[in-house]
């Protein structure tokens, strides 16, 4: 089922896009939890990591990771470090069921997460 992220991909609703290629889009989170908080998403609709089940999906996840590192460099948070998070399913705290990776940085993170 489509989510609000499909509308962002289609450019039907605005987003502060920081990265885009054929397969991926990245934009600033509407409710940032850190000075840098960016969501990296595939353009194809995959609800969650629970549904990643092919070599193609594995490559996509790897591409999301590569994009996160490139964006971290662009945002100037690669030296001090950052956090990558994928909330998966109900217990994982996922709210939007379109696979996405959170890139968080610009402050010291805490552990454990809530
Ligand atoms: P998660 O809990 O992992 O499913 O995180 C979903 C994130 O998506 C949450 O941090 C807020 C963000 N978000 C939800 N709707 C929008 C939107 O319309 N625009 C943007 N930029 N971010 C959104």
What does this structure look like?
- With 114 residues, the protein is an alpha+beta fold.
- It has a single domain (4-54, 61-105), classed as HIT-like (HIT family, subunit A, 2-Layer Sandwich).
- 24% of the residues lie in helices and 22% in strands.
- It has 2 helices and 5 strands, in the order αβββαββ.
- It has helices at residues 4-9, 55-75; strands at 17-20, 24-28, 36-42, 82-85, 101-105.
- Strands 1-2-3-5-4 form a 5-stranded antiparallel sheet, with helices on one face.
- The protein is globular and about 35 Å long.
- 22% of the residues are buried.
- The structure holds 2'-deoxyguanosine-5'-monophosphate (DGP).
- Residues 4, 15, 27-31, 39, 87, 93-96 line the site of 2'-deoxyguanosine-5'-monophosphate (DGP).
In short:
With 114 residues, the protein is α+β, with helices and mostly antiparallel strands. It contains two helices and five strands.
Class based on secondary structure composition and strand pairing: alpha+beta
First-last Cα distance: 28 Å
Number of helices: 2
Q: Shape from CA axes?
A: globular
The Cα radius of gyration reads 14 Å
What is the name of the CATH topology? HIT family, subunit A
Poorly predicted regions are none
CATH class: Alpha Beta
Q: Largest sheet, if any?
A: 5 strands, antiparallel
Tell me which ligands are bound: 2'-deoxyguanosine-5'-monophosphate
Oligomer: single chain
**Helix coverage percent of residues?**
10-25%
* Sequence of secondary-structure elements: HEEEHEE
Summarize model confidence as the mean pLDDT. 96
- Return the CATH architecture: 2-Layer Sandwich
